[in-house]
Specification:
This protein has 414 residues and is of the alpha+beta class. The chain has helices at 2-8, 10-17, 63-66, 103-129, 164-170, 178-197, 247-251, 258-273, 283-294, 299-303, 329-336, 352-358, 371-391, 402-406, 409-412; strands at residues 59-60, 68-76, 80-87, 93-99, 143-149, 152-158, 200-201, 210-212, 220-222, 229-230, 312-318, 321-326. The chain contains 15 helices and twelve strands. The strands form four sheets. A six-stranded antiparallel β-sheet has the order 1-2-3-4-6-5. It has a two-stranded antiparallel sheet with strand order 7-10. It starts with a helix and ends with a helix.
């Protein structure tokens, strides 16, 4: 096919027609990864949203030692963008987080760098105390370096694979096997134990922030420490993604490491079920879903809330005793002047036990299972139920901590 031959080798065709023509790939227009890509701020380097305009082939940083050539976009969010890059000096691949050119994001991301350094040091100290080579440490996301490029903080991390949400999606939102859920959960508990030793709270544990190291392995790492805080320096009250937000944060009660354990419980349930356990459309709806499945917080806990009357009605039972009930959707809508939609029901069961036991997941959907295998699967499900009940404990003081949860039969298999 002459047309195919001429267009496939277009540059050579031009050279045949014009001896002075020389093709230089460096002069190709570079594909913009940032949207919108129209220059608006920072001498034309940023768009209207204060995002650095990233293009394939551009280099972040300076020189061979600290230069990173942009390959592709990995993700974007309120903080900025994450790109896959090749380090010029070593040709190694890394992910580079390019923070928005705004003071608030710069301050928060600078804190993320310090928290990662602290967590990594804690991991090294633990490995050394156990006489394990620190080079083998592999629980905490590896931080390579950070630098400023055109007024944007750039944070360089190791490059990982897909996140757990993408894994669930690839499996058709049908949920993962109990055994795979257990393997992933054990690793999460190890990482949370390490963070607790370092006196750090992640504050945003969710499937999108848990990445596989490789696509062919269940080994995982927690990422995005942008909302993390030190136990003695809790800067924010509006934390945790809504589906994984703990009751104490919803109520405005001072929080501890326990909020990460609540999020972990929600993540573990989602890994098994394939969809979020509490997919609330608002804070009110989130709290309603939690109480419908797990019961009410204690009166003592509700009294600690920043504003108990926002979500609850108070009833005097006499003798100084009070009872709280959650407000109806109509009452809450009228008082808060917010349009609360009807709560869509995603599950046919109202209790954790019924939900897990009756879920037609990976193993139950396998018609080739023997009676013995089915019985073993039911035993594993009961262990999962007990594990979730002790982690999804509404009272944070009664919630299992990572070290305790690590010894639970669901994890140990005993």
């Amino acid at each position: 096919n002459p047309l195919y031959a001429l267009t496939r080798r277009l540059a050579e065709t031009y050279e045949l027609r014009n001896a002075q023509f020389q093709y230089n790939p460096r002069r190709n227009p570079k594909r913009a990864l940032t949207r919108p890509s129209k220059p608006a701020k920072n001498d034309g380097y940023d768009n209207e949203n204060n995002d650095y305009i990233l293009r394939v082939g551009d280099v972040l940083g300076e020189g061979q030692e600290h230069g990173y050539r942009i390959i592709d976009l990995l993700g974007q969010g309120t903080f900025g963008q994450v790109v896959k890059c090749e380090k010029l000096k070593t040709k190694e691949l890394f992910s580079v987080k390019v923070i928005k050119n705004k003071a608030a994001y710069l301050a928060q991301s600078s804190m993320e760098v310090e928290i990662l350094k602290q967590a990594s040091k804690q991991e090294t100290d633990i490995y050394l105390s156990q006489r394990i080579n620190p080079d083998d440490q592999d629980s905490i996301l590896k931080f390579e370096e950070s630098f400023t490029h055109k007024n944007h903080l750039c944070i360089v991390f190791e490059l990982l694979s897909v996140n757990l949400y993408e894994l669930i999606k690839q499996n058709g939102f049908k949920g993962l096997s109990v055994d795979l859920v257990r393997v992933i959960t054990a690793q999460l508990l190890d990482t949370l134990t390490l963070l607790q030793h370092a006196k750090l709270i992640h504050c945003d544990l969710k499937p999108e922030n848990i990445l596989l190291k490789r696509v062919d392995s269940p080994a995982i790492k927690i990422i995005d420490f942008g909302s993390a805080c030190h136990d003695s320096n809790k800067m924010y009250t509006y934390i945790q993604s809504r589906f994984y937000r703990s009751p104490e944060v919803l109520l405005g009660i001072p929080y501890t490491y326990s909020i990460d354990m609540w999020s972990l419980g929600c993540v573990v349930a989602e890994l098994f079920l394939g969809i979020p356990l509490f997919p609330g459309s608002s804070e009110y709806n989130q709290l309603t879903r939690i109480t419908e499945m797990l019961g009410y917080p204690s009166a003592k806990m509700i009294r600690k809330a920043r504003n108990p009357s926002r979500f609850f009605n108070k009833h005097d039972r006499g003798n100084g005793c009070f009872e709280y009930t959650i407000k109806s959707r109509d009452q809450y809508t009228q008082e808060q002047r917010k349009n609360e939609m009807h709560s869509k029901q995603y599950f046919p069961h109202n209790t954790l036990e019924d939900l897990i036991l009756n879920f037609k997941g990976v193993s139950r959907a396998n018609p080739t299972m023997s009676d013995e295998q089915i019985q073993l699967d039911i035993i594993k499900r009961h262990a999962l139920i007990d594990f979730l009940k002790k982690i999804l404990e509404i009272d944070p003081e009664k919630r299992l901590m990572p070290q305790e949860a690590r010894m639970h039969p669901f994890i140990t298999g005993e």
